[in-house]
Write a structure and sequence with these properties.
By secondary structure, the protein is of the alpha/beta class. It contains 21 helices and nine strands. Helix content is 50%, strand content 8%. A five-stranded mixed beta sheet has the order 1-3-2-4-5. Strands 7-6-8-9 form a four-stranded parallel beta sheet, sandwiched between helices. Helix 19 packs across helix 20. The structure holds iron/sulfur cluster (2 copies). The site of one iron/sulfur cluster (SF4) has 14 residues, from helix 2, helix 3 and helix 5.
């Protein structure tokens, strides 16, 4: 959801400056500056929108430092729509003209380019060119070891895994640009579980990125184009299931006519009678992505889903209310703050001797896994659907 300038000012006016959101804001906790708090940012956004303050570099720095984690919204007694305020401010006052975004745009928009990119990454990893790749493109250090790229079929029928009488319906699967490039295992696991539960899985070929990264960079025009492409690709009669909660939250906000759902929430409403799940005597810690916890507010369904695994001990990762610093492109554009937040998460993982960490967002997974690799910590960071699919028999 985005506002026009008048709506922005009137939404900002709804903030009564009570300050209840301040202790929930990770950037305020780190810098201690009112201008890096939700209350301070709302005052700044309103003042710039009313031409009381200039739209200068200092203003941009404070808005850019916001993770849009929406933790502040959960504490706000007046339900101020902070997420829409910051999205609108970025689009109206802070459009980015970065070379990085211009180069990344076609790869984000066109699936065949995302697919070619994953082949390039896979081949570079296969021929042990990782360190060369990281010297040329420093952000490559965030890239995990990936599986051989998959060319997705338009339809995966449940009939191979479920009897005709057991057929429950059909769904569409949202691939996501980053997930399809770097985490095909999560998508394969989703198809496997959905087919086993009796659902045909449609993968519309023309689907594209959710638009979240473009929106974050203040490129409202590109974000709107991506939303339109997705709106035209998906059949409105079927639920669209997302495996990355960041994409799901954006699609929910900007494609309200479609039934967009996080895969764990969808699965928890399904019939699991007669589904065989092997036991796993392990402790699994769950990291709550901000987009699932504060955006979609369905993070509890991840715990409920994993609790279906006999003997598994499912625990919330302490400190779950603080963002890991991934936050879409934030981990690339705000290195210092992103690293500081990541260090907090890694310290908690170490202190709790975590062996398996479940997270439902590719951004969190990349951010946390890169910190673990840097410290040579052997922790499996997996999407919950991968864990449940393995226990249901996926090799
Ligand atoms: S969205 Fe997150 S980082 Fe931004 S003001 Fe709210 S709590 Fe702070
Ligand atoms: S909690 Fe809500 S009303 Fe209070 S300062 Fe924060 S944004 Fe404003």
């Amino acid at each position: 959801m985005a506002f026009n300038i008048k709506e922005l000012i009137s939404e900002a006016d709804r903030c009564v400056a009570c300050g209840l959101c301040l202790p929930h804001c990770p950037t305020y906790r780190k810098t201690g500056s009112e201008a890096d708090s939700p209350r301070g940012r709302i005052q700044l956004m309103r003042a710039v929108a009313q031409d009381i303050l200039p739209n200068n570099d200092r203003f941009k720095e404070h808005i850019d430092l916001c993770l849009n984690c929406r933790s502040c919204e959960t504490a706000c007694p007046n339900n101020v729509n902070y997420g829409a305020l910051v999205d609108t401010t970025r689009a109206l006052f802070i459009p980015k003209k970065s070379v990085w975004l211009t180069l990344a745009k076609p790869f984000i928009r066109h699936r065949y380019l995302t697919y070619s990119l994953s082949w390039g990454i896979w081949l570079a990893q296969k021929f042990k060119l990782n360190s060369l790749m990281q010297q040329v493109i420093p952000v490559a250090k965030l890239i995990p070891n990936i599986e051989k790229p998959t060319s997705w079929k338009p339809l995966y029928l449940a009939s191979s895994d479920a009897s005709a009488s057991n057929k429950k319906g059909a769904v569409s699967l949202f691939l996501g640009c980053t997930t399809s490039a770097l985490d095909s295992q999560t998508l394969s696991a989703s198809i496997y579980v959905l087919n086993k539960l009796g659902f045909d899985v449609h993968i519309p070929a023309q689907q594209t990125c959710c638009g979240g990264i473009a929106r974050q960079m203040g490129d409202a025009e590109e974000a709107a184009k991506l939303v339109d492409l997705n709106a035209a690709s998906f059949d409105e009669s079927m639920p669209i299931l997302t495996t990355a909660s960041g994409c799901g939250t954006g699609l929910n906000d900007y494609l309200p006519q479609h039934k967009v759902q996080d895969i764990s929430a969808f699965l928890m409403a399904c019939d699991w009678t007669n589904v065989q799940i092997k036991s796993l005597a392990e402790r699994i810690y769950v990291q709550d992505p901000c987009s699932l916890r504060n955006g979609q507010k369905t993070h509890q369904t991840v715990y409920q889903l994993l609790k279906k695994i006999p003997n598994a001990d499912i625990q919330a990762l302490p400190g779950n209310s603080q963002c890991c610093g991934g936050a879409g492109a934030y981990m690339l554009t705000q290195n210092d703050m992103a690293n500081s937040l990541r260090e907090d998460k890694i310290a908690i993982i170490k202190a709790n001797n975590v062996v398996i960490l479940a997270t439902s967002n590719i951004g969190c997974s990349l951010q946390i896994a890169s910190g673990l690799r840097e410290q040579h910590l052997n922790v499996s960071v997996l999407h919950p659907i991968q864990i449940i699919a393995r226990q249901m028999g996926l090799a």
